[in-house]
Amino acid sequence: MHPAFSVVFFTTATGAGYGLLALLGVLAGLGFIAPDFWLGLIGMGLALGLIAAGLLSSTGHLGRPERAWRAFSQWRSSWLSREGVASVVTFVPAGLFGIGWVFFGHTGGWVAVAGLLAAIGAVVTVCTTGMIYASLKPIAQWHSRFTLPAYLIFSAMTGSVLLNALLQGFAVGSNILQAVCLLLSLLGWGWKLATWRYNDRLEIPTSANTATGLAGGTVRSLEWPHTEENYLLKEMGFRIARKHSFRLRQITQLLAFALPVLLLATVFALPWPIATALSVLAAIVQFAGMLVERWLFFAEAKHTVTLYYGR
Fold this sequence. Notes:
Blueprint (H helix, E strand, L loop, with lengths): L4 H25 L7 H22 L20 H24 L7 H25 L12 H23 L5 H26 L7 H5 L18 H6 L5 H26 L4 H28 L12
């Protein structure tokens, strides 16, 4: 599949934003994070900013972005539409939670309820995003048991690392949160390796023979269906060289998992100012690594329609 940067940024930014929003809603709503004005302003601003930036970026891949609102009407049958509805609905409790925290200075009562509802909405939205890809049967690399959990794991991972950097900046960091960040990063690393192993061993049962119903021998095209590249080849016939794929996988492991784990592990033994700098660096490096991971997620996927073009 063609890895459009707008969609790559969308899945990375919204995943991190919703992960951070869910953690803020739960932890602040339950009283584990004090209702500090600047902490609430920066935390909610970062979470909602990432979500809004990602959602706006996703419209850049549409042929007619001005008609994006029509997608909301297909929520009964379309995971894309459900994602749009869930993302908009989540802004309501998230906005109330942010107002109560920042402008009223408390996170209990109705503000806590709004925070918990925002967290639920964030999780539901991430699930709908994952199901957009997991429900596509023509793309075997996505239509597997690994896709939906990966979206949830990566969202929790990047969101927790962002929250850790935020709390470290306000000198209210927690060793428990740092340990959770480490465990989630290791879990994400292991899940990504398992996904790659599964995809590399994947045997797609569909072929030109099964598609045409012609048994025996090998069905092949005598000539190309088109004289020049068309939309299907551009969007669904993207191919990446094996050597580039291997190198990008190495970069993904280094930036998204290995370096953040190393930096976060080092933070345990360092004083506050240095711990803050390393925590922020871990969040930045991991976000960059997830951009590479998302690019590979699209580039390595193969659509069944390419059989028509002899691939």
